[in-house]
Amino acid sequence: MLLEYNIYDNFNPNTMRYDTIEPSPGAHFPRGYPAPKARGVILDYELFQTGYEFTSTGVLTTEAKVGDVIEILTTQDNSLAQTPDKTISQKLSLWYVITTIDDDNKVVLQNYFWYMIEGSSYPTANIYGYAGTFWTILTGSLYPQLMLWGSNANWEETNLELKFNMEADTVEAKELATSLFSKIQLQPVTYSYDLFNLKSPGIVVGLLTNEWTRQRKKFRLDELQNPALEKIVITERSQFNFINVFVKDSSTQQYPSRSKGYTLDDNDNLVALNTYQGDGHDLPEQRTVKTMFYDKEPTDAQIKSEIMPSTTVSKIYFNQIKLYPIQVNDLVEIWYKGIVYRGYIADRNFTPNGERLTFVEGERG
Hints:
By secondary structure, the protein is mostly beta strands. The protein has helices spanning 13-16, 112-117, 131-140, 173-184, 300-307; strands at 3-8, 20-24, 27-30, 38-48, 56-59, 69-77, 80-83, 86-88, 91-101, 106-111, 121-123, 128-130, 150-153, 161-163, 170-172, 189-193, 202-207, 217-220, 228-235, 242-247, 260-264, 270-272, 289-294, 311-319, 331-336, 339-351, 354-361.
């Protein structure tokens, strides 16, 4: 599959944010990105649409430099439902930033969104509420490395209340984004759009799919799709069976001098030591202790999750199904070797020999 690209100078927000268009007196909107400085064909490529797991690579046929923005042009459909009644139809472009380039013009590419938020952090005390709030933090509350003209999200998909308990006072934007997208089973889509109807498109990031209400797609995998199954540990905690918990006092913003202790009994029920009335024979034979610090009172489920055995999920890589094309962010149910897996498509890998998809098991929330 032959793919062309457009290449641009870095979309530097230091200057682009102040380059505005005034369509009417008093109305100022940021001008879109400029025309490309070069166009070429990318060779020997491996291009990941979302960058969920990997960076991308390829060989360019024109000159470029580190920091340049590159748009990979495809003929694939990239319809996006922006509202229940409005779906835009356009061809899929893949947007990256060049992070390294060698003497043979081989480049390493980082997806635009992930490069944009790199280096940013946010106070953990302000991280609470709904998924849509966290998306706003990532796309509107931080000064990013790249120019962003706008963001949007399916408000029904992001109307999901989430809670993050984190030990540190701050969290890196990439860590917050990874956790958010895992919980809502949506990866960000980066696309070009004339947001202000000025015939001057800019880069927009969205938590969107080709349908407003996602319908779970069901299919079977066989050897034709060359599936590869992996088990990944999403929460590693099997070495602990006892936890000391410190919760910050909301009035003083100080931690108490004494912790609360929790463990699990033989039936994996959470046991609070300060109310335990047994003789200890239903508790672990040996303690393996960890300590957690919380800004807000954690739920029993959150405490229990820290001392339960490790949680693993399945990840399946497989070739695109030509008669039943699958897209990024599709909710799916897969039959493979007699087992049913439910989850979503987290990434799509383009190579000269075809497409390969990344399935991640799990449920929303």
